[in-house]
Amino acid sequence: MSSAPDAARNPGSVGEQTAGAVPSGAAPAVISGLPKRVVLDTNVLVSLYVFADSRFAPLRLRVQSGSWQALTRDDCLDEFRRVLAYPQFRLDMETQLHALADYRGCASILRRQASPDQVPLPRCKDRDDQKFLELARDGNAELLVTADKALLKLARRERLAGLFRILTPQAALAIA
User: Fold this and answer.
1) SS3 130
2) Rounded distance between C-alpha atoms, residue 54 and residue 51, angstroms
3) Tens digits of per-residue pLDDT, 44-61?
4) Which domains does the chain have, with CATH numbers?
């Protein structure tokens, strides 16, 4: 997959990190004062970075303020880039690059990592959404915030207990 164009790179971003600060399979530690580690899927990012009047704007403020640490990977950023170019959004290239750069500038970009001791995940009905589950697991996220029905359906499964929670943006807003 291609990497982001140079114009979309933000030198002030956190940069690439390797997932695995907490052993695979361990529940993320909630430590007072540390940012909550979260994964925002593409539909949430579009709401936050394309529609400025989004009712979910407080989620973006949590990421920008540092109270939430947004986690992403190159394949997730590639999807966001493709979606920003959808004709229905009618975004010019400058606006697309600005939205991508804004998100990259406050997100931690993790490298995809395969490990034999990874906790197995349920398969998402939509294969394009599996990467968000993997990212949440591998990045030791507390939350995966999504409006995607296939991902939300998995939230009811016991297999994710102790790994991370899958929440709608509305439910995520209710979390302090």
Assistant:
1) helix
2) 5
3) 999 999 887 678 999 999
4) 31-112+129-173 (3.40.50.1010)
